Amino acid sequence: GQNIDQPTEMTATEGAIVQINCTYQTSGFNGLFWYQQHAGEAPTFLSYNVLDGLEEKGRFSSFLSRSKGYSYLLLKELQMKDSASYLCAVDTGRRALTFGSGTRLQVQP
Amino acid sequence: DVKVTQSSRYLVKRTGEKVFLECVQDMDHENMFWYRQDPGLGLRLIYFSYDVKMKEKGDIPEGYSVSREKKERFSLILESASTNQTSMYLCASSLPFGANEKLFFGSGTQLSVL
After folding, report:
1. What pLDDT, on the 0 to 100 scale, is given for residue A76?
2. How far apart are the first and last CA of chain B?
3. Shortest Cα distance from A92 to chain B (angstroms)?
4. Could you tell me the mean pLDDT of each successive run of 10 residues in chain A, 109 residues long?
5. How far is the C-alpha of B95 from the C-alpha of A15, rounded, in Å?
6. CA distances to A104, B7, B69 from B109, in Å
7. Which residues numbered 13-72 in A keep a CB inside 8 Å of some CB on B?
8. Chain B within 8 Å of A102 (Cβ-Cβ)?
9. What CA–CA distance (Å, rounded) separates A81 from B46?
C-alpha cells in the first residue's frame, strides 16, 4: 500500500519560518507535489520535486530526499494569509496522485 | 487559466437516491479525477480517467461509478447514496502525466446524505 504521513496541525507566528514535513512509503515514485488549500476553497499547486535537493520559489521552498522518503515545505516570513492546509502528494506512477492527510497551519499575530 | 467547474456547491440527498455530480473543464485536459475529502483522511482517489470512455478505479471506488462521454466532462455517480458518502467531493484535471503535471481542482461539492 501507499503511506504518506504529515503532522495534523501546526501553529506559527507571523514573520517566522515554519517547516512542514512529509514522509512517504510508496510502491513507486515519479515526483512529489505540495498543494495549498484555504478553508472552503480548492487546493492550488505550490511546488514539485523529482530530484533530491531544494527548490525555491519566493517565500516558499520545498526539499526532497528520495533515499529517505522525506520532503519538507519551508515557509519564510509567514503572513496571516498563509493560514491554510498544506497537502503533500506523491506521483506513484499510476497516473494519479496519492495525497497525505494534510497539515493545517495556523499563523498567529 | 484552467477552469474546472463543478455543477453544485452544496447538495442534500436522501439515502437510496441516485446522485450525479458533474464536472467540466475548459482546457482540453486528457486526465480527470474524482477525489473525496474527509477530515483527518485527506483526499482519497475514487476514480480517474485518462481519455474519453476510459476509466480506472482509485483507492475507494465502492459505491461509485463514473462516466466520461466527452473529453471535457467527467461525471461521478452514486448509485444508491448512503450516509457514509456524506463528504466533500473534488474534481480535478491535468495534462497527461509526465513530469510536473499539476492538478487543477474545482471548488468542490459538499454532499450531505440524510
Report:
1. 97
2. 37
3. 11
4. 93 98 95 95 94 95 97 98 97 90 97
5. 36
6. 21, 8, 21
7. 30-31, 33, 35, 41-45, 48, 50
8. yes
9. 31
